[in-house]
Amino acid sequence: MSTISSTTNPVGTTSATLDLVITAGLVHTMVAGAAPVTAIGIIDGMIAVTGTAAEASEWNARERLDFGPAVLTPGLTDGHSHPIMGTDMTAGVDLSEVHTIADARAALAESAPGLTRGDWQLAWGLDLNVFGDQPARGDLFDDVLGGLPLFIRLFDGHSALANPEALRLSGVTGREVFTQASVVTIDRDGVPTGLLEEFAAMELVQRHLPVVTAAEFGKRLRQNLLAMSETGLTGAHAMDFIGEPTDMLNSIEALGELPLRLRFSPWCNPGATTETLEALLALQGVGGRRWAVDGVKMFIDGTIDGGTAWLSVPDSRGQSMASFWPNPSDYTAALRWFDDHGIPTATHAIGDAGLTHVLDSLAAIDRRAQHRIEHIETASPQIIGRFAGLGVVASMQPTHCTHYTRADETDNWSVRMGPERAAHGWPTRDLRNAGALVALGSDWPIAAADPRRIMGASQLRREVGDLHDHPRQPDQAMTALMALEGYTSHAAAAAGETGRAGIVAAGARADFTVLGADPLAVTPDDLAHVPVVATMVSGSMQYRGMEYSGAL
């Protein structure tokens, strides 16, 4: 399925008085076979009518807004983001662009003098590739910290690094046993190295970190969302609902609008009891003006980089051979329970064995809700061919490939996978060619949220702007249209909102991204720098960027 069709798109005049009429030089409706549109009429935050600028001159409207030659698309939606967890994760020193241990030490040393006894040194985004062939250890940074405890959230969001002082304060011994796939890594002498794999292991230290007030956290969250809006985003599928944030989100909306429309999917982890499932059911539909809980997030495995994915054949270190759920049938039972109650699910599945189990589980249920699978870093043609037939949406993040792997396959992911499997990573084009819906996103803060860069990278299979870089799996490159669909019509389908979002047509929400050039015509490298003229949510101006002609 490459396009979204609609039969509810009346074009022409309207006798109703419209709240707003918008005109633009070019409108990508993302509706197959739709007549050309250069004007949109809006009532109560919804598109009431579309047509040409000439036709719109006859429409009754309270206000008119002309974007001149700019290009308007449906509002760009990040198909996989972690706005709340990410706001927590990005506290401290940003190590996301660090490439050597020496640079990481220097960045931490520069920050340490501003801290006092009793403080924690926090950092985030460190890539495991900086350690090369040596094991990741927290004590490698001790001599630049002045005795402070250190906690680094690593780049994949599934692992962290703590120094000996942080482990001591947290009581971590290396003998901990978990009910889900998590590991406190120890050396040959049984001493914890500081590397904490997966959420339960990280939580041993995280529960001892300084607590931020709700007001301060809400301020940081809003700032992050504002920054995303400036890149052209109007919404995000938020794969978290950490820390019972209802009151905080309501407090933000009491002061004004959220910069993005957020669709939350709280987590369901292994060991979930009937009480847990009922609590997740009770959360469905909770929300505000621009946010709502709609679905749950599940995990069938971890990461290839950390050796916690679920592969059919082990990686080069003999790892990644187990499900995140100690008993995978418990995952299947939980999935069935959610579907029976009409709750959509999004399952993190990276390895081919994990994907097979999720697809088998989905094939065995009625699929009353829209289900999706996240990440899909390695899959056989047989696995890929099942998505379209089951109506399962693939949610993928192209910059995980371009940012964290290397074309010469010397990176940690590629070494673990080996040449044959590494050559078939992140199969975005194969999924599209097989008829699957493919929503695109960032997994922020695992990768930067800017949709222009991600759409460009999905076409190039390398970092945008780096002309000396070489593509990874170039046969998996998407077209410009596929990339835009990934952020519009396919993202809407992933949320079960086909016809209500991701298109410019009557009956859809009036969420728009306005760009200074055509994303289907510029080169992928240039797309990263196309100016964002404006974003609009429910027909209201959210972000105003470069100059446009304004209200008439």
Residue-averaged pLDDT, rounded? 94
Q: What is the CATH third-level topology name of the largest domain?
A: TIM Barrel
Reported for the largest beta sheet, the result is: 6 strands, mixed
Lateral arrangement of strands in the main beta sheet: 10-11-12-13-15-14
**Low-confidence runs (pLDDT<50, min 5 residues)?**
1-13
Separate helix tally: 18
| Rg estimate, integer Å | 24 Å
Overview of this structure, please?
The longest helix is centred in the middle third of the chain and has 17 residues, at 214-230. The protein is built from 18 helices and 28 strands. Residues 1-13 have low confidence and may be disordered. Helix content is 29%, strand content 20%. It folds into three domains: 17-75 and 511-551, Roll (Urease, subunit C, domain 1), CATH 2.30.40; 78-84 and 213-494, TIM Barrel, CATH 3.20.20.140; 92-206, Diaminopimelate Epimerase, Chain A, domain 1 (Roll). It starts with 16 loop residues before the first strand and ends with a strand. The strands form six sheets. The chain has a six-stranded mixed sheet, sandwiched between helices. The chain has a six-stranded parallel sheet with strand order 18-20-21-22-23-24. It is globular, with a radius of gyration of 24 Å. With 552 residues, it is of the alpha/beta class.
What keyword list fits this structure?
18 helices, alpha/beta, disordered N terminus, 552 residues, Diaminopimelate Epimerase, Chain A, domain 1, six-stranded parallel β-sheet, 3 domains, six-stranded mixed β-sheet, TIM Barrel, Urease, subunit C, domain 1
